[in-house]
Amino acid sequence: MKNLPFLVSFIFCYGLLSQSFHETHARHAAVSLTNFPECMDRANVTSAELRKIRKYPEERIKIINEDEDFRRYGCFLACIFQQNNLMTGSALNSHKIAEFIDVKHNGDLDAISFISKSVELCSSIIEETDDECNAALSFKVCMLKAMRARE
Questions:
Q1: Which of 84, 104, 106, 102 lies closest to 93, judged by CA?
Q2: What is the pLDDT of residues 53-64, one digit of tens each?
Q3: What does the alpha-carbon distance between residue 79 and residue 84 come to, in Å, rounded to a whole number?
Q4: 108 C-beta neighbours (distance < 10 Å), count
Q5: Whole-model pTM?
Q6: What is the Cα Rg of the chain in Å?
């Protein structure tokens, strides 16, 4: 149960690398990842870079601490979010995100409540951001911090 919020973050941003993930989670989460390779190309990120972020907690900590430049990763996230109507330009679509959360956590009111509040907070932080890459990365950083605080 402690890892449930991280799972949402994982699904949103990290677990997008394998074909089985694509087939299983796209079907159950109403999220399409058919443009995943396009987003990698558009953001100029490799699957190895994405795997590294997904696999190693210290890489996520670097993102949280802004120890390195993760702009390309932010552009990748923006593309994935936009392709799934979770983001338009640099603005997050709170209604679509709420639908995603409800589908993934059907019946788990604690997880839905926590994640919904985190999404609301993190969305408000990026409201003034016009750059889609910065907005997506800032949203991700905020969500990672919320998940870490809950653990």
A1: 84
A2: 888 888 888 888
A3: 9
A4: 14
A5: 0.75
A6: 14
